[in-house]
Amino acid sequence: MVESLFLIFVLSLIVFIIVKTYFSESKDPILKKLKRHYHDNSDEKAVGGETEIFYYWDEGKSKNYINGMYVHSNEKGIYIKPTIFNFWLKNLYIPWSELQWKGEFRSYLAKKDVYFLCDIGVYIGVSRKHKCNKKGQIQIK
Fold it and tell me: Cα(126)–Cα(107) distance, rounded to whole angstroms?
């Protein structure tokens, strides 16, 4: 009896966490802006990449993040694709022409590059291997 109650508790806790995360991220105004301006339907562009923490924030506000997003870059731009744990999020494609490099910050042990999206006034942080230098020239590492 105790084992079945424990199992029910664990399963309901998992469902609660998933539902809470879904609703909190679906109401986020910054994510809504990103989805509206940079939504990408094609999966072929987002192939590859590594799982990393994707940061986003407005000017003067604390950084928000989504853990476990596939981030891939090429000469056209940055592609951000959700993993199975973030299935409700949309694929994003942000061309290099929309990004202004603003510096870097530390995320735990990794350094992240900061880019500013001029059209919507949002900052994003991705790992340093996705690089566009200050003159707008792409340097993929």
Answer: 10
Q: How many Å apart are CA 141 and CA 128, to the nearest integer?
A: 8
CB atoms under 10 Å from CB of 126, counted, come to 24
* Radius of gyration from C-alpha coordinates of the chain: 17
What span, in angstroms and rounded, lies between the C-alpha atoms of 32 and 26? 7
Confidence tier at 141 by pLDDT (50, 70, 90) = very low
Question: Cα dist. 43→1, 24, 79, 89, 99 in Å?
Answer: 46, 25, 10, 13, 21
* Structural contact between residues 110 and 130, judged by C-beta atoms closer than 8 angstroms: no
Residue-wise pLDDT for 67-76, tens only, equals 888 998 888 8
Q: Using alpha carbons, select from 116, 48, 33, 122 the residue that is nearest to residue 80.
A: 48
Q: Is the pLDDT assigned to residue 36 strictly greater than 70?
A: yes
CA distance 9 to 3: 10
Q: What is the pLDDT of residues 99-118, one digit of tens each?
A: 999 999 988 888 899 999 98
